[in-house]
Amino acid sequence: MKELAQLLSNISDAYDDFILGVINFAKKDISHAGLLNRYMRENPNVTSSDVIAFIMDQPDFHDFSATKEMKHVG
Predict the structure, then answer these.
(1) Residue 70 has what pLDDT?
(2) What span, in angstroms and rounded, lies between the C-alpha atoms of 54 and 46?
């Protein structure tokens, strides 16, 4: 996660909640950290919006959404 945190911190428009949110997503499944690390190394000029779009395009993105968790509660 340290490499991921560093890569996220290097994004020009990164902000604390963005970094924490992406790390939290990566912690849900360790394979996410590898995907994100590779994506950011291969695309060094990404913006925070690019990273969010990449995450949202992942096939299991909605498996970790808050709305899915809320449906189980109610």
Answers:
(1) 46
(2) 10
